[in-house]
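Obj.: predict assembly geometry.
Materials: sequence records (below).
Method: joint structure prediction, all chains together.
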Amino acid sequence: MRRQIPLLITLIVGAVLIIAAFIPRAPFGRLGENFSLYFDIIAVFAFLLGGGNLVRIHGARLVRGVGMAVTEAKKGGGAWPLRFVIEFPFLAFGGLKDRRGRDWFFSLITLLGFFAMLAAGLLKLGNPSGWQGNVTAPEGMFQDFYDSMFNPLQATMYALLAFFVASASYRAFRAKSAEATILLVTAFIILLGRTPAGAYVTAWMPESLSFLTVPNLANWVMAIPNLAGQRAIIIGIALGVIAMSLRVIIGIERTYLGSDEK
Amino acid sequence: MTNGVNKTFLEKMQAIDRRVIFLFIGLAVALPLLFHVVFTEKITPIVGAIYDRVENLPEGSKVLISFDYSPSTVPEIQPMVDAVLRHCAARKVKIYIMGLWATGQNIADETISRVLKPEFPAYQYGEDYVNLGYKSGNQGLINVILTDLKKMYTTDVHGTAIDSIPMMAPIRNLRNFDLILSFGGGFPGMKEWVLFAGDPGRIPVAGGVTAVSAPQLYPYYPSQLLGLMGGIKGAAEYESEVIRHYSRFENSSHPGIDMMGPQAVAHIVIILFIVVGNVAYFLTRRREAEND
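Observations (raw structure tokens):
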């Protein structure tokens, strides 16, 4: 029964949603709408599941890491708490030999961040309107955390991409074969075409050859070869999704239910 | 001996330390910002399509703007949002704000406080613009509000009942909007708006995405996607066009235009590094062939 009921639910919901897409009239239209609504309600519970999972994984890593760090500190003999404090930078930042215990300090930071944001949001700490106020009120602690921690940290992480992309481009774009040369030339066109420099470089070209200017070439690359490739990928993915969806609805694909082992 | 020294040099040029590249990229971004290097932008058809649609909307038209991004992509996306918001407000259209991303709600609040409230004091909340906030459900949410918006949104972001907000009275579902603008670059985002709202509801969908996401959306343009702003360049093009037609925005912030200088120089530096790597590679191969 533990497997049959979910399979039955999947079959009914999947079949109704497919029929509703082709026959959007009663009762399928209404049923399709309601099933989408149920999905939205279930999606809310995914947050609880996600949060619980994060606490479980990082909690276990933290307990294991701290345990190993304490054992390491005790090895030296004497007053181990003092040794733990002295050796903290070593023990906290990847110094432990057993890699299962490493990075426990980052798990601690993750959990502290998670619970601090959760408390600030749920209890609306510092919110001038109290419980009735908007969770993102500018004076609230939740917004403070968001503005002064989350926002700059995320922006910093993304900004680092510019440096890595530059380094990766330099290493990857080598004209070692015909295919690599095509990729290299395309990269040049797009890199120049996405900046005003592209227009300046080919500004001298006569009107009759305007199609050869870098911005026009960049637009052509995006609108013709890129479009063709993307469309092929999209159609391929769509066919794969249809096949997989049918397997799930019919009940051939059951991996989403977990294993049979108890 | 000379040959050996040259070979070593060429080998070095093929494997420049990444920290050297990082330093050059850092300078390529910082120096144009310090010296305020600015270029003029010419609008491309794919961005111009969005501008023209907004420009031709009659006063009082209903535009839905979805904030589907997080602070990580704010530098790329926010300039587009600011420019479009200014344009919409200048056209006196009704602006409905929502978000498929939880982080979008904060960004929407911040955008309203920074752009709409100070620059358009006559714009009244509930009459001219409303913030519906974030709701979970991704494409499932779009699927529901395509037929019944009030099933998911019973209040706005401040907890005010939807039915007591004047500008929500004519809205029953997504089909009541004249234009949907999505800003983001990940999932859920513009692709979901096209597939679950634009296509089935025959509603014009457009917006802006990060530069890396833009190529994936080209297959939908122009039949399913009205227009597309890709990265900082898209933002700079839109900003330039808005400033060209509305001189009152000349003194407003235009980060898209400002960031095109650093982007141009950084791209040129990347190209130079690629050229150096390839020249060194070919010279090494030629030397090896001569020695053989």
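Conclusions so far: The two ends of chain A are 14 Å apart (CA to CA).
To do: check interface contacts against the pulldown list.
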